[in-house]
């Protein structure tokens, strides 16, 4: 009887610990609002594509700067405190736009959002390992990504609601999104802060030098560039999807913004499918099929002039890009079993691709229209085709 009661208490304690952690994964998804928000800022301030694309580029620039230092910080103050710090920075970033929407204000807000998310991405997944281990870890992290994706595809819906609703939005319009997400972020801080989580003794911190040295290994360099392309395509699709509809179908942003949600919905579905299919299909084969989906999507985006075809293309790129990060990340870890800490920091630095691609896409779109932006993403897909051929021998 005592054994059953103890097991029940342990299960309840585990759930009470996991709920705040999953709420943090939801907060991690706030970074994906940058694509939709940058489109509304572009409309409100009459910015060019290159000017507007600075916002998503600025967000992901901070991954280059903060990923490795965050690993060092975790070893000093612990994972939970590091996650709490990231949530506080994120909350500040979400409060700033409530008081104005000038260009400088938005640059500051998106910079803070990028810094908070860089710290969160680096620290939250390791925190989960203090609660879950063994064969359940991957499925738990996958579910966390699903929760994160909910925040991602809700962002354009909430922006559109704020811009078009007759209900009171405190004069903020689409910026009411920041109020809602700031409230959730504060709830996350309170919930995680009140949750006891036992952490093991920190490992030795990895330094910048140790990480950069690994780029001298050809396969690790291929993985790093693959992560850059994955994130570039992700952020690029998030940003360019409504613009394609506006350019070709002459619809207002409030109607075109749902295209971003279509992408995130199918990316979420792809994540769930991948969690099951990768148990039976080799990494190389699954990755190849994913890249073919994205290649087909880029082809459709070049020529599509109907809402249906554009949505099909966004669904394909969402499905195709949903598991690219996890496969590349695991391949990199398998290639360097004795230096996994350094490789982990380096792969997170690869999220810097979210800076490079939107900048290039903005200038290309200014020059030749949105097909120029699609062409930049297509370069990333072509690289991933090449990477498919370099994936290590199948493990299945």
Structural features, described:
By secondary structure, the chain is mainly alpha-helical. The protein has helices at residues 2-28, 33-45, 49-52, 54-77, 79-95, 103-128, 137-164, 176-193, 208-213, 218-249, 253-256, 258-277, 283-303, 307-321, 324-335, 340-349, 353-368, 370-390. Helix 5 packs antiparallel against helix 6 (103-128) and helix 7 (137-164) packs antiparallel against helix 12. The radius of gyration is 21 Å and the shape is globular. The N and C termini lie far apart (43 Å).
Give the CA-CA distance, first to last residue. Answer: 43 Å
How many discrete structural domains?
A: 1
Q: Give, in order, the helices and strands.
A: HHHHHHHHHHHHHHHHHH
Mean pLDDT: 83
Write down the overall geometry: globular
**What is the CATH topology?**
Growth Hormone, Chain: A
How many β-strand runs? 0
- What's the tally of helices? 18
The portion of residues assigned to helices is over 70%
Global structural class: mainly alpha
- The CATH class assignment is Mainly Alpha
Percent in strands: under 5%
Low-confidence stretches: none
Radius of gyration: 21 Å
Task: Provide a short characterization of the protein structure.
By secondary structure, the chain is mostly helical.
